[in-house]
């Protein structure tokens, strides 16, 4: 993570503020307060879905905050060796001016790993990415660009990924077959999903669709299946005996460890955990982890307000 | 009241003129381009004047025989040289300025200090007050324990002493009011919003002290009594180089957060910070009884 250097005096000032009663953070927030989150969709016209997220933007002059741009591009992939979704996180050097290019690569790799391993999990895979069953599918390429980092980068990345995927439209496709009068032509929509059909010894009925056409314009289509499932992440920063959300860079530098939990809210009542990571050098026992998971579950409900994006609001501001 | 004139066409031919004439020309040019004492704000891409009459300086470029501003700022002219001083820029140090900086590196006999300038500033071991007497020569043992005075990440307040050949500034903390900072938090603002004031150590009646560094770093901390800070019978090394915070009570902490947030709000409206403005804003926000 970004290594913001702070002095011992600042560190102990921040920690003492967190442990004070009532807790007092540098910008006056309580432990469970997020900074304002701004969202915008449709920012990249050439992509199939895009979003811009800013956490902690100054409302007057629009400066500051953690800013992420996420885009989803659909490409026709081979169903055999493509697993559907690939995430890439790129950090703009201007977001981390103090990092060398090698350190920047490491950071990008870390962020990419967490996002990719969470989002490409089979349980989250949308069902409507098939083009020709067993042969061709839409492969989702999710690219995230970190424009600025003012703390809480993982939450921002997950929000950006979710909103961009929410915004994504999959073009409808129609299979094209060569008419063979002997075999009954099958509409590709009726075929069940079968990934093993590439085998030459397969004797099951195979769609003989060989190509496809796009009835839609490039920016039309249907939304991704199961888009409610895309996870929301909450980072809990652990100061001794308390935890808090949405840390600024100084606060991140002053606490030893963080725990990241990502939840998928397919039904609002029963979230499933998709990712649990711990960063930093601190220690935690099992009971502590359980308590933290519970706490983050409660918090995770709040950003699920993000679902209002379904109403296609161009620009939303929520707290 | 106002008089509008169009730019003069560039002369077709250049002629060498006698000194008397040159003076007259200068005056005309002056009239033509910048009224004396007038400040002109410009925006990027704005055409300033003809490139044949004037030379381009910092913040400008020439396109199509026109001098064009490349930044937003104030147009300045020295004879034939047109420069634009950018409004949002890094800190341009001047000798005697009070700055707040952060140690980035400990080097032999010197510290490197980030002071929001183009280059890191340098604080020599010989320009800090060493423990055990203000006027003490530095010893080899001091060189070996430089991290006990300042270590990486530490914040300090210092004064610009001089410049080195490469334009980086040399700082000194040879005063009892300078030194390491603690008991508070840092706010960062564009340097242009800090005016040069009579004193950059501001004490607000709400128990909060401010150090307005001219480089745009502002230290907001708990009020320290005057005599404690000055340290009457000389110099208390323990206190000056300590990294431990004092006990800070809840109300002071709230006031510090409130002042920091006020600074953020004022800065986002590009209001230059002075003690009176901050004090008025503080009282107003208390009246409104909003959370810090």
Automatic annotation (TrEMBL), chain A:
Coiled coil: none annotated. Belongs to the RNase PH family. GO terms for biological process: exonucleolytic trimming to generate mature 3'-end of 5.8S rRNA from tricistronic rRNA transcript (SSU-rRNA, 5.8S rRNA, LSU-rRNA); nuclear mRNA surveillance; nuclear polyadenylation-dependent rRNA catabolic process; rRNA catabolic process; TRAMP-dependent tRNA surveillance pathway; U1 snRNA 3'-end processing; U4 snRNA 3'-end processing; U5 snRNA 3'-end processing. Residues 33-171 form the Exoribonuclease phosphorolytic domain. This is Ribosomal RNA-processing protein 42. It is found in: Cytoplasm; Nucleus, Nucleolus. Pfam families: RNase_PH. It comes from Collybiopsis confluens. It comes from the Eukaryota. GO terms for molecular function: mRNA 3'-UTR AU-rich region binding. PANTHER family: EXOSOME COMPLEX COMPONENT RRP42, EXOSOME COMPLEX EXONUCLEASE RIBOSOMAL RNA PROCESSING PROTEIN. One of its GO terms (cellular component) is cytoplasmic exosome (RNase complex). Keywords: Cytoplasm, Exosome.
Automatic annotation (TrEMBL), chain B:
GO terms for cellular component: cytoplasmic exosome (RNase complex); nuclear exosome (RNase complex). Pfam families: ECR1_N (PF14382), KH_6 (PF15985), S1_RRP4 (PF21266). Residues 94-174 form the S1 motif domain. Residues 1-23 are annotated as: Disordered. SMART domains: S1 (SM00316). InterPro entries: Exosome_cplx_N_dom, Exosome_RNA_bind1/RRP40/RRP4, KH_dom_type_1, KH_dom_type_1_sf, NA-bd_OB-fold, S1_domain, S1_RRP4. It is found in: Nucleus. GO terms for molecular function: RNA binding. Its main location: nucleus. Keywords: Exosome, Nucleus, RNA-binding, rRNA processing. One of its GO terms (biological process) is TRAMP-dependent tRNA surveillance pathway. Belongs to the RRP4 family. PANTHER family: EXOSOME COMPLEX COMPONENT RRP4, PNAS-3 RELATED. This is S1 motif domain-containing protein.
């Amino acid at each position: 993570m970004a290594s913001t250097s702070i002095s011992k005096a600042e560190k102990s000032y921040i920690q003492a503020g967190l442990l004070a009663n009532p807790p007092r953070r540098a910008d006056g927030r309580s432990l469970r307060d997020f900074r304002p989150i701004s969202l915008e969709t449709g920012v990249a016209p050439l992509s199939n879905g895009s979003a811009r997220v800013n956490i902690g933007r100054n409302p007057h002059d629009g400066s500051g905050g953690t800013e992420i741009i996420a885009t989803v591009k659909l490409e026709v992939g081979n169903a055999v060796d493509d697993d559907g979704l690939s995430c890439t996180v790129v950090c703009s050097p201007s977001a981390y001016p103090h990092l060398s290019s090698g350190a920047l690569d490491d950071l990008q790799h870390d962020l990419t790993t967490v996002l990719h391993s969470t989002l490409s999990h089979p349980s989250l895979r949308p069902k409507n990415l098939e083009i020709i069953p067993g042969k061709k599918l839409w492969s989702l390429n999710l690219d995230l660009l970190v424009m600025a980092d003012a703390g809480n980068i993982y939450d921002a990345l997950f929000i950006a990924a979710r909103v961009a995927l929410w915004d994504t439209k999959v073009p409808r496709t129609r299979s094209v077959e060569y008419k063979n009068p002997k075999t009954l032509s099958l509409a590709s929509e009726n075929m069940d999903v079968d990934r093993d059909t590439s085998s030459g010894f397969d004797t099951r009925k195979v769609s003989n669709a060989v190509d496809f056409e796009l009835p839609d314009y490039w920016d039309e289509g249907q939304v991704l299946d199961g888009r409610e499932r895309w996870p929301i992440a909450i980072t809990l920063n652990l100061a001794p005996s308390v935890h808090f959300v949405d840390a600024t860079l100084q606060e991140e530098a002053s606490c030893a460890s963080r725990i990241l939990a990502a939840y998928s809210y397919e039904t609002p009542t029963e979230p499933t955990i998709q990712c649990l990571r711990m960063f930093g050098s601190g220690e935690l026992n099992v009971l502590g982890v359980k308590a933290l998971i519970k706490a983050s579950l409660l918090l995770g409900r709040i950003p699920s307000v993000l679902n209002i994006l379904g109403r296609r609001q161009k620009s939303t501001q929520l707290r | 009241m106002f008089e509008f004139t169009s730019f003069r066409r560039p002369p077709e031919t250049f002629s060498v003129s006698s000194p008397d004439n040159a003076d007259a020309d200068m005056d005309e040019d002056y009239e033509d381009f910048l009224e004396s004492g007038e400040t002109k704000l410009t925006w990027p891409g704005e055409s300033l004047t003809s490139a044949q009459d004037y030379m381009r300086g910092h913040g400008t470029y020439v396109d199509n025989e026109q001098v064009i501003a490349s930044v937003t700022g104030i147009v300045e002219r020295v004879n034939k040289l047109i420069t634009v001083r950018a409004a949002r820029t890094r800190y341009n140090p001047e000798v005697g300025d009070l700055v707040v900086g952060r140690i980035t590196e400990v080097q032999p006999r010197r510290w490197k200090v980030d002071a929001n300038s183009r280059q890191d500033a340098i604080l020599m071991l010989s320009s800090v007050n060493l423990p055990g007497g203000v006027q003490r020569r530095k010893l080899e043992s001091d060189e070996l324990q430089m991290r006990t005075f300042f270590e990486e990440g530490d914040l300090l307040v210092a004064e610009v002493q001089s410049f080195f050949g490469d334009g980086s500034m040399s700082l000194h903390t040879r005063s009892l009011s300078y030194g390491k900072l603690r008991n508070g938090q840092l706010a960062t603002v564009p340097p242009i919003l800090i005016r040069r004031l009579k004193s950059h150590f501001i004490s607000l009646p709400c128990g909060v002290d401010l150090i307005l560094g001219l480089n745009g770093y502002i230290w907001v901390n708990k009020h320290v009594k005057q005599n404690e800070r000055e340290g009457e019978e000389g110099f208390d090394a323990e206190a000056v180089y300590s990294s431990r915070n004092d006990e800070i009570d809840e109300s002071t902490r709230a006031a510090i957060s409130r002042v920091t947030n006020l600074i953020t709000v004022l800065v986002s409206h590009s209001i230059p910070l002075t003690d009176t403005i901050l004090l008025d804003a503080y009282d107003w926000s208390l009246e409104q009884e909003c959370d810090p």
